[in-house]
Design a protein that fits this description.
3-stranded antiparallel sheet, about 200 residues, elongated, alpha+beta, single chain
Length: about 200
């Protein structure tokens, strides 16, 4: 059996009932429609307040948006269905120079839609769904918050291998920054010996 290549990230929020239909609130999807994960613990703990928890999330390596293309016909169908009507023509026009052999660069499409606010926040889950349908799993953003960290915007929730609640105290004993972008990591190397003993306790389930 081939072992999955995985990456580890922190998340501050509530994953007790996460599902396929993630829709961002207005002004809360700067980097796209998906689940936001980070290698920087200080970023995650900022969002792990109140009823929200801190999670260690293991994600299977998949297709990153910058390496993907989508048939132009499918892109136009999406634009006609979900992009704000007054912006549809302009979005199509701008994509023309990024279309080669009938294929549109997926990351360019994403950037144009987000930068132009060409889709309503209540419809962002359609954008995430569109990427998954076209075999795009996530976007990797380097240094998103200025800590030299890696952030993942996860589109395909089926790529989550495991999610474990971690206390902030224990989290600061955990080093997940030893892996490189796109590389594989093993939970035994990501956690200290003390954390390896804890990983099977209820706190991590």
């Amino acid at each position: 059996m081939v072992k999955k290549e995985t990456m580890f990230f922190w998340h501050g929020g509530d994953l007790s009932d996460y599902n396929e239909l993630i829709a961002q609130k207005a002004g809360r999807y700067e980097y796209g429609a998906g689940l936001y994960l980070t290698t920087e613990l200080r970023v995650a703990t900022k969002y792990a307040k109140g009823s929200r928890r801190l999670y260690l999330v293991e994600v299977e390596k998949g297709v990153e948006i910058s390496s993907a293309v989508i048939p132009v016909e499918k892109v136009h169908e999406f634009i006609d269905s979900y992009v704000i009507s007054l912006k549809r023509r302009d979005v199509k026009k701008r994509l023309e120079k990024y279309t080669t052999d009938g294929q549109v660069k997926a990351n360019v499409l994403n950037n144009i839609i987000l930068n132009d606010k060409a889709i309503q926040s209540t419809k962002t889950y359609h954008l995430r769904e569109f990427y998954v349908q076209n075999s795009i799993d996530y976007e990797i953003v380097d240094n998103a918050y200025g800590w030299g960290e890696m952030m993942m915007v996860l589109y395909n929730m089926k790529k989550i291998v495991s999610k474990k609640i971690v206390s902030e105290k224990d989290a600061y004993k955990t080093d997940i920054n030893s892996f490189k972008k796109g590389g594989a990591v093993n939970i035994e190397s990501a956690l200290s010996q003390e954390q390896q003993k804890l990983v099977r306790t209820p706190e991590f389930k």
